Amino acid sequence: MFKLRAILALLLLTLVTLTPTLSLAADDPAAPSQDEATPKVNAAVELPKMQKILDKIKGQVSGDTNDNQLSQLNEMALELSGNADTLGQALIPQRQQLDTQLAVLGPAPAADSPTKETPEVTRKRSQLENQKSKLDDQIKQAEGLKNGGLLLSSQIANLRRDQLKSQLALNSGSILGPRFWAPLFSTQDLDGEKISDFIAELKDTAALSWEPGWRFGTVGWILAAMLVMTLGRRYSEEFLAWVSIHKLPEGRLRRSFLAAAIALTTLAAVVITFNFTALAFTRRDEVSSDVQDFVDRLVQLSVFCGLIAGLGRAFLSTRRPSWRLPHISNAVAQALKPFPPITAALVFIFQTAEAFNNSVGTSLNTTIVANGLTALLIGSTALSISVRTQRVRRRLAQEGETLEERSTLAGLIQIALTLTALAILIALLIGYVMLARFLAYEVVWCGILFGSFFFLSHLINDGCESLFSTQNSTGKRLQNTLNIDERHLQQAATLLAAVGKTLLIMIVALALFNGSFASSTPIELLQKAIEFWGGKGLESLNIVPAHLVSALVCMVVGIYILRSVRRWLDIEFLPKTTMDIGMRTSLVTLMSNIGYVLIILLTLSIMGLQWNKLAWIVSALSVGIGFGLQEIVKNFISGLILLTERPVKVGDLITISGIEGDIRRINVRATEIQMSDKSTVIVPNSQLISQNVRNATMGNAQGVVTILLTFPLDIDPVRVRELLLEVYNENERILELPEPSVSFKDLSPQGIVLSVTGNVASQRQISGAKSDLLFDILTRLRKEGITLSTPQTMVIERRQPVVTTKPDDELLP
Predict the structure, then answer these.
(1) Which of 312, 432, 737, 797 sits 20 to 30 Å CA-CA off 342?
(2) Could you give the CA distance from residue 468 to residue 463 in angstroms, rounded to a whole number?
(3) If you write DSSP's letter for every residue of 378-404 in order, what string do you get?
(4) Looking at residue 266, what is its pLDDT?
(5) Most confidently modeled of 1-15, 394-408, 494-508, 607-621?
(6) DSSP assignment letter at 575
(7) Which residues are listed as membrane-spanning (predicted)?
(8) Cα(405)–Cα(412) distance, rounded to whole angstroms?
(9) What per-residue confidence (pLDDT) applies to 501?
(10) What is d(CA 682, CA 673) in angstroms, rounded to the nearest whole number?
(11) How far apart are CA 722 and CA 726, in angstroms?
């Protein structure tokens, strides 16, 4: 497992696929060699050998093996399966050739056939059929060996998982109790004798390297190792810094390239130094196999140490603070400077102790002591990093200095580091040493993976941006060669960077799952707890508690990826296309809706939910769903129609049911319309489909400003027409094309009705432009002495009848 982790880490840093080949211990007589597993041309000889090798691997798996041996046996089983598959594929062309030869000879004639074939043809056909039958058997045997190797690999993986769960669940005593420290003072076991014998082998190996005739080579390899670690690392880093400054274009690529160069030079220096040192002492054939395996283990360990030290130096960048990629203040970086080499040294020391115990074969109690000390120091170091960072930031805040802006992710990482360190220390206190050791190395492993991803993602992003930038020679050359717009180059850079980051995420996920293959232990504990509290009821729905946790993780990761992709489309990629904002918003919304549906379906699938178990629930609720949710379903379908057909889109100015405003968002159920007074009206999507909607910006984005004016009959219409056109032409909002126009609309008793029309750039400018034009028109008309026609009113007056009266003397008789 440790070697595979190192290879995956190198894959992250160099982006080069490495195919490791592991072999079994040389001192094990039952161990199959690599030469035996290599298929040869003669399948009749090789297939029985492969079967024997597979049987030997099965025998070793069934014995008492540790995790490292199981890992090697697993790789041997996979290699055997691959060789069997290769051999089977190589036999298929031979079988096809025999079929062709048999087709040439044709079928055997019937007994009553008048035509007879010669004995030579009959013999040849029989010979070919026998060969074909043997090839068929060999192909079937190769297929069986292939499937057997894969099945054995799966069984080994399950066995390793069970072993790790047993180790994690083992309570070996608190680190403060005498039971933990007993192996250091007890003399009842044979650990002391085993350690002394192995130390004697190491001394003999050193003596072999110092014999006459070998001393000069030993001193030369040691000096070469020292030069590589000191001068070689320093000058190679300085050379790459010079390349970054003088050869790379200006921009962020310089910083990311230099950070990657620091990490790579440190890694290369450490690995080469360890290899040279190993060659100095173990290059002779007389070195014992145990010592050779121990030294090989240290060389493999150097990859981890180099990565920890290199990534830490690149992350802090204390020598060049202005080139530091992460947003860390110089005070915090200086405070954290000792921790990367300390962590690398601790990992090397205690992994060396573990490798020493494995080589010697010490007792379980002695191994637990070494693992406990490993977890204690790594957990304490992780907690010290978090505490010291927080202390420095608090001190800077008290001194009034401006702190760097920390992202939410950085805060979550610090919290996770603190909680994991506390979990390690608590596990040591209550006696779960193997669990603490597992968490300690997972912290280191996750730090290596995420650190590598951080630097490589910046390098890929900056490299793609610089490669396709028209400010650089490569971008200009691409633009001239392909004859494309700068916008297309930016799109290509964004897409290429996204593909690179996606591949990195896949590699990181693969490395995490491979490095923490026993992560199902908490799930098993959760499953037992649910069963203890009556979780058996979930069996009716075929829901396994372990699947629940996996489904929850899938849902959280899926939502995070979906939001990241949505943010990338909305901010980075789509703005570089020719799509308008409405189309971009509709596309992002549609993609989000489809993504959420897929995430829900995938989560339910991982959960193991069987829909036939819910048939009675669906039947009982079908009536209620039909009546209660029909409006929601109708609005949802209408929203999908709006996003696909796009009769209205985000940014359009529409009028519906007396409501006029701009569409700001089209949601799943309703559409948000912003009015002119900045208020928002929520309109169900179904109304936009079923009712008459006026879309002012769909066919033509321009607006038309029309003003009707009534003048008296005695005016000069030509002069008034010229005056109105002058007012329209002088207004800065009125477009020159199409030109403003004045039309004679009507001739009525009230006067002459003229219509003035002009275009503006947007529908939203109509009201403002109309107001300005009316002010200017009334001012110009009053200045020219031209009046508007006043409306004629009809007044109806009712008068009382006049009554005449006579004098009183005329009334007398």
Answers:
(1) 432
(2) 9
(3) HHHHHHHHHHHHHHHHHHHHHTTPPPP
(4) 92
(5) 494-508
(6) G
(7) 213-232, 257-278, 298-316, 336-356, 368-387, 408-432, 438-460, 492-513, 543-565, 586-608
(8) 14
(9) 87
(10) 6
(11) 6
Q: Does residue 175 contact residue 433 with C-beta atoms inside 8 Å?
A: yes
- Maximum CA pair distance of the chain? 181
Quote the pLDDT of residue 479.
Answer: 84
Question: What pLDDT digit, counting tens, does each position of 750-788 carry?
Answer: 788 888 999 888 777 888 888 888 898 888 888 888 888
Separation between Cα atoms, residue 182 and residue 369, nearest integer Å: 9
pLDDT higher than 80, residue 669: no
The amino acid that residue 581 corresponds to is I
Q: Which residues contact 579 (CB under 8 A, 6 or more apart)?
A: 587
Q: What is the mean pLDDT of residues 119-148?
A: 85
First CA to last CA distance, the chain: 148
CB-based contact 302:271 (threshold 8 Å)? yes
Query: Angle formed by the axes of helices 119-168 and 433-467, to 10°?
Result: 120
* pLDDT of 246: 87
- The rounded radius of gyration (Å) of the Cα atoms in the chain is 42
Distance CA 809, CA 813 (A): 8
Token pair of 430 as six digits: 């209550």
Q: What are phi and psi of 164, to 5 degrees?
A: -65, -40
147: region left, alpha or beta (phi > 0 left; psi from -120 to 50 alpha): alpha
CATH code of the region 703-784: 3.30.70.100
Round to whole Å and give the CA distance between 703 and 761. Answer: 6
- ω into 738 cis (within 30 of 0): yes
| Closest C-alpha among 350, 244, 339, 257 to residue 297 | 350
Mean pLDDT for 490-512 is 83
Cα 490 from chain centre: 21
Q: Which tokens sit at 296? A: 């090989």
Model confidence at 6: pLDDT above 70: no
Q: What is the pLDDT of residues 463-492, one digit of tens each?
A: 888 888 888 888 888 888 888 888 888 888
Residue among 25, 87, 18 at smallest CA distance from 51: 87
- What token pair was written down for 545? 């508690």
Over residues 321-341, the mean pLDDT reads 86
Which residues are CB-neighbours of 198 under 8 A, at least 6 positions away? 290, 356, 359, 360
Alpha-carbon torsion angle 11, 12, 13, 17, nearest 10: 20
Nearest of 70, 35, 59 to residue 49 by alpha carbon: 35
* Whole-angstrom distance, CA of residue 13 vs CA of residue 264: 7
- What single-letter amino acid sits at 308? I
Closest CA to 781 of 720, 707, 690: 720
Relative to beta strand 751-760, strand 741-748 is antiparallel
Q: What's 633-695's CATH class?
A: mainly beta
Q: Give pLDDT tens digits for 712-755.
A: 888 888 888 888 888 888 888 888 888 888 888 888 777 888 88
Q: How confident is the model at residue 272 (pLDDT cuts 50, 70, 90)?
A: very high
List C-alpha distances in Å: 330 to 291, 410, 411.
45, 17, 18
pLDDT(808) > 60? no
Listed in order, strand segments (DSSP E) in 553-658 are 653-656
Determine the pLDDT at residue 268.
92
Least confident of 5-14, 72-81, 302-311: 5-14
**Whole-Å CA distances, 479 to 126, 129, 183:** 68, 63, 71
Residue 288 has pLDDT above 90, yes or no: no
Are 733 and 688 a contacting pair, CB within 8 Å?
Answer: no
Q: Which residue has the tokens 């959280």?
A: 556
Strands 694-695 and 703-711, by their bridges, are unpaired
* CA–CA gap between residue 32 and residue 148 (Å, rounded): 16
Give percent of the chain with pLDDT exceeding 90: 5
Domains of the chain: which residue ranges?
2-106+124-169, 183-467, 526-620, 633-695, 703-784
